[in-house]
Every structure is written in structure tokens, then in C-alpha cells.
Amino acid sequence: MALILTVVLPVALGFVAAFLFAASAALQRRAVLRAADSDADHRASTHRLPVLWLFRRLLRQRVWLAGWTTNLAGFASQAAALHFGSVALVQPLLVTQLLFALPMASAAIRQWPPLRDWLAALAISGGVALFLSVEGAAPLEGEADRTRLVIAVLVAALTIVTLLQIAQRRRPMAYSALVASCAGICYAMSAAMMKLTTDSLVNDGVVATATDWPGYLLAVTTFSGLVLGHQAYGSGSLSVAVAVMSTVNPCVSFTIGLLVFDAVPSTEPGPLAAVAVAGALLVAGAFGLSHSPAVRTETRSTAVHGVYPIRGNV
Q: Could you read off the pLDDT of 142-171 as tens digits, one per residue?
């Protein structure tokens, strides 16, 4: 019975959460494409982040609301999994959402993913899972140095602005990947703010939390991640966007843990070798997905019908 509660149940809930997150991304992508198709004059595509212009239309779509309901169910499953199991067990399972997103993305172009795409997705999922399994990866425990945290926020904001600037006029796949990187940074910052806000709420109460700035920055980073994630889903490949966000998020969280939470990385040969293998798997998987004919077909289709800037030139 103990084995079921500590291993089997959290593993099952972790896989359910991964599936729900992938389904949510697919539904949100469909909503963005529908909103873009309703923009007959292509006015949205003249903006640096076209999805911002379409947000009012998204809020009125049942598909988008269904996507958010699915996303909330995913968070609930993740929370339940973390309640019964450890972070080291549950978090690596969540990266399998790429394996669920791959067939969902291929369904949009009615083309089953070839073997090379599955191998690339397995490599990326395995690389991120291996990285998260290393002791001390994405550490956000302990007391944060708020001065360093402010510096980290400023550096993250500058990085996002720079990546968005670089993304302009790039090809659809590169554009989507760069925007997805920005979303991953936002979600990593959101995790750090969530840690501070939760601790403040438990230790200091509601009033103290309401007058402290991390809670408001949590709202800003979460909303920014939402907007950028929608832009990434609706301007390129869903598989590539999910892969990039799943990779950037834990890597940035790891960096925040080192710089802000004074986490000490392991210097043992085993963890260092695991990180090296994880890096090799990520590179191999990224190369495979970026050269996949199915992913390129999906990207071209999304660029024409989605929210890729200056899409009339695609």
C-alpha cells in the first residue's frame, strides 16, 4: 500500500498532468489559429507580438476556455502528484508532455509523426528528465537574496527584450523557438516568485504578502509567460515550442537557484556525467526536430494561418 501511495500514484498523476498540459497547449494553439483566421485584414500580423492584438477574440472562444480549464486540471494533477511524491520523482515526468504534444501537433496537418520525430522527442524528454533528476537541479529552496533577485529579474527582462528583438524578421521556426525561450524564462521567474509568495503567505500572513512586491511580480511573469506561450504556439511548431519551453524553464530555474538561493551544485563525477549526457541528448533532439519534414510542414502551415508577424511574406 505504501508503494502505491509513494510511487505508483504520483507517477500516474504526473503522467496525467503531462498529458493535460500538452492538451491545453494544443487547444490554446487551435484557439489562436481561429482568432488569426478571423482577422481578415491581417492587422494582427503587423505587431511584434500579434497575439496581443487578438487576445480579446481569444477570450470569447470556447476552445480557448477549454484549454485553460484543461491547464488548471493539469496544475491540480501536478499538485496532487507532488503531495504524494517527491519533486525529484514528479518533475521529470512532466517533460513527457512533449511526447503527447507531438501527435497532437501532427494531427493538425493530418500526418503521423515519423520515427525520427519520436526519437528526437524521446531524446529531449530524456535529457530534461535526466537533468531534473540530478541532485540540486532547479533548486529553489532556502532564503532568497532579494538584491540578487532584483538583478536576476532585470537580467531576465533584458534577455527577453533582446530575444524578441532578434526574433523579428526570423523564419517561423526560429521565431517560434525564440519566443518560446522567452516564455520559458518567464515561467522560471514565476516559479521563483511563487516560492517567495507562498513562504510569505504561510509565515507572515495575507496582509504582509499583499504589501510585498514578489506577489505582483508573480502576476506579471505568469501573464507574460501566458502571452508569449500563446505567441509561440500560434506562430510555429507546437512540438518545437513545447520542447524549448520544457528545456529553458528548468535551466533558468537552475541558474536562479545558484545565483539567488545560494544553492551549491554537485561536483561529484556522477551528477556531472549526467548533466553532460543530458546536454548531448538535448542537442541531438533539437537537431532532429529542427530538421524534421513534419515539423517544417506544421510550421509553414501555422505561419500562414497563425500569428506570425508579416505572415503575408511567408
A: 667 788 889 999 999 999 999 999 988 788
What are the domain boundaries of the chain?
2-313
The per-residue pLDDT for range 232-247, each reduced to its tens digit, is 888 888 888 888 888 8
Assign 3-class secondary structure to the chain.
CHHHHHHHHHHHHHHHHHHHHHHHHHHHHHHHHHHHHCCCCCCHHHCCCHHHHHHHHHHCCHHHHHHHHHHHHHHHHHHHHHHHCCHHHHHHHHCCHHHHHHHHHHHHCCCCCCHHHHHHHHHHHHHHHHHHHCCCCCCCCCCCCHHHHHHHHHHHHHHHHHHHHHHCCCCHHHHHHHHHHHHHHHHHHHHHHHHHHHHHHHHHCHHHHHCCHHHHHHHHHHHHHHHHHHHHHHHCCHHHHHHHHHHHHHHHHHHHHHHCCCCCCCCCHHHHHHHHHHHHHHHHHHHHHHCCHHHHHHHHHHHHHCCCCCHHHC
